[in-house]
Amino acid sequence: MEVEKELSSTIPEAIFLDDVESFMAKPENPSAEVVIRRFDELYKKYKFMEYNLSQKKKRLRDQIPEIQTSLDTVATLQSKQKEGRLITTNYMLSDSVFATADIPHTDSIMLWLGANVMLEYPIEEGAAMLTQNLSTAKGSLTQVQSELDRVKDQITTIEVDMARVYNWDVQERRKVKATATTPSL
Q1: How far apart are CA 13 and CA 16, in angstroms?
Q2: Structural domains of the chain in order of their starting residue, each with its CATH number
Q3: How far is it, in rounded angstroms, from Cα 70 to Cα 172?
């Protein structure tokens, strides 16, 4: 279909209709209703993509501060242990209950991987993994934002195309009505 071409691997590009008259004259476009229906299907796909990308963006925005906090905690743990000091900290036991703990010198940390999986890593390896995860999450956020912007552009284009085809159809109906009501001499 000429209405769309591939913009990226996942987002079809909506083609702006410069000349609605010639577009509607093509055999694959029998009527404005059919074309508008096709545009509407494409519009719904774009809106679905926009919703999914927005959700992914929200998850990444929530994930990045968590990773950064974990990385900061590991850095603090490393610096305090290099000084040879015992670390005393407060931690959340439950929603409004905190406890105090003394953390002895340790060479490893425990990291949640997700799906109720926790693994023990040497401190340096855990810090490297968290740094890599933070970098990956920031890169993913940039890519998702770029794709979201592209989808929004496609939504705007398809909305304009739908309006132009609708307006063309209204003009065509007026022409037909005018010729039908004009008395012949």
Answers
A1: 9
A2: 4-163 (1.10.287.370)
A3: 64
| Cβ proximity of 148 and 50 under 8 Å | yes
Write out the DSSP string of 51-96. Answer: HHHHHHHHHHHHHHHHHHHHHHHHHHHHHHHHTTPPEEEEEEEETT
Contact 152, 160 (CB under 8 A): no
Q: What is the distance, to the nearest Å, from the Cα of residue 131 to the centroid of all Cα atoms in its chain? A: 23
pLDDT tens, residue by residue, 61-108? 999 999 999 999 899 888 888 887 788 888 888 888 999 998 888 888
Burial (CB count <10 Å: 0-12, 13-18, 19+), residue 53: buried
Report the distance separating Cα 96 and Cα 4, nearest Å. Answer: 54
